[in-house]
Design brief:
This protein is of the alpha+beta class. The protein contains 14 helices and six strands.
Amino acid sequence: MGSIDTYILRTTLASFAVVLVSLTGVIWITQALRGIDLMTSQGQTIITFLGITGLVIPALILIIAPIALMIAISHTLNKLATDSEIIVMNAAGLSPIRLFVPFLYATLLVALLVAFIAAYLAPDGMRRIKRWDAEITADVLANILQPGRFVQLDQNLTIRIRERQPGGVLAGIFIDDRRDPKERISIIADRGTVLNNDRGSFLILQDGHLERFETGKQEPALITFDRNAFDMSKFSRRSSDVVYGIRERYLWELFSPAPDDPMYKQLPGQFRADLHDRLMAPLYPLAFAALTFAFLGTPRTTRQSRNFSIANAILAVFGLRTIGFACSVMAVKSPLAVVVQYLMLALATGAGIWMILVGAVVEPPTRIVEAINRSNARLLRLLGRPVTP
């Protein structure tokens, strides 16, 4: 690449990085606030909270990256136009299609990033979230029980602890178990610990007593124990039992799912829609870049407004992505929607490249420009400012 290409590529990628980080950060914060209950209700640390919510970032980048690229290209082209660099390049013999080359390099880099995220990184992050969530849920006693609170784990099962002690020891345990309609069991223990093994999850109680109230008997049965195990397996989900959904499957798993996969048998349309949605993810940066450059990349004089072209570029990109989302939803039930998606992207990219090749300049109709100028003149007169001839 020459110095001009390097300059444009560096400017575009720098703008892309700034926009991508900014947009992803804002959207990530809104998503992360939904998981704040990890710290409040489940007693997790800030590290766990940031770790789990941070794993969703690749999935956000998958959607945001093409839009960030469009904004970066628009910013770079606007900067080149403001400094009259596009006109100078065109006067020096640099055609619009040749000027598009460094933007194409940047687009290909973004497309490769999006392809990698769609194929591996995003589903891998979703898998880690599901495994992490399963581990947190499996350790239900150590995370959900809060000192001094009565927690109802089941319709007729209530547990309370007085405090937490170092080493995972739960002190002052009270259990009220009325799940069996024929009896009611109340357990009070000085302390206890959580034990997870192959047979399930258990609350190991120490130094306590158990009262069993049986139906038809007036006196309860009182049992004193030094050590007793209370089965909590019903309220635990072992990480080995995690079943990955469609969004958590790698791209190659969507290509050839197992014929006996129960989820594939139940939702074959969802597999098809998600597969093609990921295959088309790297194509959106190409379409967005071609359309953006087609509207903003042609040389203009300083008297020609770029606002109309910027608005058209935004509308074209927004419309393309909206139709893509709609087709992704319809592809679950109709394979024809997948064909429409591919044709739509091909037509949008082809139209953008054709406009670049012919050097088409998109300008608003004369009547619209005159109407806008008249409205501006009236507004300036109402504000008492002189009108520029």
